[in-house]
């Protein structure tokens, strides 16, 4: 241990006190030993340090900070160096606001397009997500503070996220859901990892010895701090034994007392507590050095805004350009239509909300670009209400224009932390507007703003489609630079766009509604499924257009990787993302048809050629063998593919790889869906063959009393009348608020009340409600109303007396 001498000077109570927060965002201090508090704050795409009362849902405003494009946006850049640059600027702002730990990046896989937090995650592919995250981490930590990679692990739905049990086979867990973390941790070396709310195969992640000890600590050699997601601690002592140092936010000493009692009773070895304290002290002392000088760090707001614009420019994806309608002709009469042109949709909702230092919008940015705008109409109500008058005015304007520039997308209450989307569609009123505009002027260029994949049955009604994703505070100007040709688009999709939601491999198993969610599709998420099962998609993984063209030639393969020539064969300078995919020729072990194993973003002037080398690494040919419980290599000829997308392979060759001679892990006859790749409707019995065990019951046991880990939603079948009444009051309030247009407030009820486990009431209230008081609430819910009320009041009185005495 690095700080054994210091730890030996601490009392047991002092050591325990370090293991949970002092308040909502700060750790505990021990002044007599010179141990100070450190500050943690959200920051996947901008700093959210709240100036007033703290919360985890983005309710109260934070200090102004640069709002960079979200991770889902920057992923489309396929540029690790850009990610590192954004991280560097995030780190600079974090130091200026005296933050020790920046809670990001988030790297969970996009298993399903409806996950409400997909805007905050990079990709459906773990290799791309891991490489980009490692860049962010290096940039952030260059300033001496810590990044915090999250949410570890298999946290791929928002509904019931604090209690859902993810049922996933070991190979899929390793290859799909942990590989991004493995790359980010080994290459980025974050000082902090955040555990997720959910369970994985029965155990909460921060108590899961397999995840936390076998893999994170032992296999990957991680020696940093693990912090719970806010309110994500279940059994504090079990978490500590697993190696989860820091519980956030504060529990006002309640769980500290549990730790002390566990040591005294012998349940917890004090040496385990000492090791946890040692890792936390290292985080405290190393990040403190970022603020050691007398100089007060600041940041240049205009410079950071310019970097946010550059990041957006490189991440915008051109999806359709029929007849070369883009770049826009300056002489064309442009009608600007769409609410998002006036009020941009530029970031997600929830804990990642940033209070921007500036905010560009389209209408105010038009003039410098020399566009001949003949007017603006909002065309639709932002939150879905239909308005014939707005459609009529928009159509009247469109009739006078040469080109309609239509700003559409998803609103802030549709994509939000704590909730999953209900469908993949654009709001009906926006589609109705588009159809009406198409009747009067078919020359429509749509600009799409949303953080995740959507269905586009209307795609034939637009000639141009530019996807800005959620492009940050400078996104409006960045989009205009691409529309006018000042910037040649170079973004490529980091996720697949299916034709419809029903085509998604996890559609029949998302989200888990009660106890668990089963990952029956296994490895076959995203392009791995669509390519292997031969399912047509709207836009494939890695797809994106340019205003120039690129040719690939002269592929050479050797033990170090693939080398080829890339030529800009068009008339404009531009950047191309060349992608390396690998497929295995053997059919002994089921695999996806191809998997991304490398990429390179290359700038080429018009007519220029460059030699590009994409190296192989330790992940190029590996698979996880469940019989040997380790990574193996299968002997085979491998197809080495170089493509402009997963569906546009330009060059291909074979390369023989000697295997590690491991036993075959599967019987193909028992896993026909996986060997065929048709994994969208796997039976329970076949999934159990893959798991190697029966799946747990996925529904609530409605005969049992409610407990700590049951949710408020389960009060619908509670024995106590008060609990059932509370449930109906909550559901009515949500319906009513949604009906009258208070949709953000309605969402808040679902996020912070409806799906909250009972234990979350204690974990998230900073000691206002403790576990003994919670026992009273549960008595009331389970049918003993007056007994529970007496217990609640008694324990509340004891808590207040204790608070007064201290």
Explain this structure to me?
32% of the residues lie in helices and 18% in strands. The strands form 7 sheets. Strands 9-14-13-12-10-11 form a 6-stranded mixed beta sheet. Strands 1-2-3-5-8 form a 5-stranded parallel beta sheet. Strands 7-6-4-16 form a 4-stranded mixed beta sheet, with no helix packed on it. Helix 4 (80-96) packs antiparallel against helix 11, helix 14 packs parallel to helix 15 and helix 23 runs antiparallel to helix 24 (785-805). The chain starts with a helix and ends with a helix.
- Structural class category: alpha/beta
Physical arrangement of strands within the biggest beta sheet: 9-14-13-12-10-11
- What gross morphology would you assign? globular
How far the N terminus sits from the C terminus, by CA atoms, comes to 33 Å
State the low-pLDDT regions, or none.
Answer: none
Mean pLDDT: 95
Rg, nearest Å: 27 Å
Oligomer: single chain
Number of helices: 24
Strand residues, percent: 15-25%
- Please count the beta strands (DSSP E, at least 2 residues each): 26
Q: Major beta sheet, specifics?
A: 6 strands, mixed
Short description:
By secondary structure, the chain is of the alpha/beta class.
